[in-house]
Amino acid sequence: MKHVFLDEYSDLRSPVHRLDPRAKLVGFIALIVICVSTPPDRYAAFAAYLGLELALVALSRLPWRHVLKRALVVLPFILVVALFLPFFSRGGGSYNLGPLTVSAHGLLVLWNVAAKSTVSVLAVILLSSTTPFPDLIKGMERLKVPSLITATLSFMYRYVFVLMDELQRMRRARDSRGWSGRWFWQSRVIGHMIAALFLRSYERGERVYAAMLARGYDGKTRTVYLYALGAMEVGFVSMLVLFPLGARLIS
């Protein structure tokens, strides 16, 4: 069974896809750090960060629908929490919206959370959508990221397919027994499925790990690494560091 939702567009041909994963890791993490440390009233700087990322999306030839769909998975959870801040935060004056009162400081905090989370999520989407996951893990290993982190991420990547296989198998079995999902009392079936999915995934995960050990697994990712650091990588990292820093200082 094949699942392509994680690496759906990582094999496209574009200048961003051809870059060494180490350059993309360093560049996007630097952009996130600069964005998070920017004061919330530097509006022009946030516009420059977002403009840079949108230009990279166009350069990488990623479908806009794919980027929007990935962003909508994460951003609503962050914004729903931040949406209540103007009603509970105090300071900086207030505005009356009918029976409701919102504070200016709370609105500034809401803007701060929305702007920084949007830029950060877009950076992660660009990184994960332009780099095959095994190459990303290999790049992290070459950057001397602790093996505990890389091993955890590689197992997460490996077992998400096991989980999806088990879930699809259980859904086929459920549907073949005439489950319609129209009635409230049928919701008990969902609870039973969740418990069974946990147990079956745990057992199958143990078997997969035992098979990996039998084949000589020692905690390291074995992939052909065809990348090398060059002028393109140096220019890419410089752009993701110097352009945001310049925008932050000028704004």
Question: Would you write up a description of this structure?
Answer:
- The protein is mainly alpha-helical and 251 residues long.
- It is 68% helix and 3% strand.
- Strands 1-2 form a two-stranded antiparallel sheet.
- A hairpin with a 2-residue loop joins strand 1 and strand 2 (100-103).
- It is flat and about 60 Å long.
What's the topology here?
Blueprint: H1 21-36, H2 43-60, H3 64-82, H4 85-88, E1 94-97, E2 100-103, H5 104-129, H6 133-142, H7 147-176, H8 187-214, H9 231-250
Antiparallel strand pairs: 1-2
Helix pairs in contact: 1-5, 1-9, 2-5, 2-9, 3-5, 6-7, 7-8
Span from first to last CA? 51 Å
Tell me, rounded to a whole number, the average pLDDT: 83
Indicate the low-confidence ranges by residue numbers: none
Number of helices: 9
Helix content: 55-70%
SSE order in H/E notation? Answer: HHHHEEHHHHH
Reported for the largest beta sheet, the result is:
2 strands, antiparallel
Describe the oligomeric state of these chains in a short phrase: single chain
Strand content: under 5%
Total strands: 2
Question: Which secondary-structure class do the elements indicate?
Answer: mainly alpha
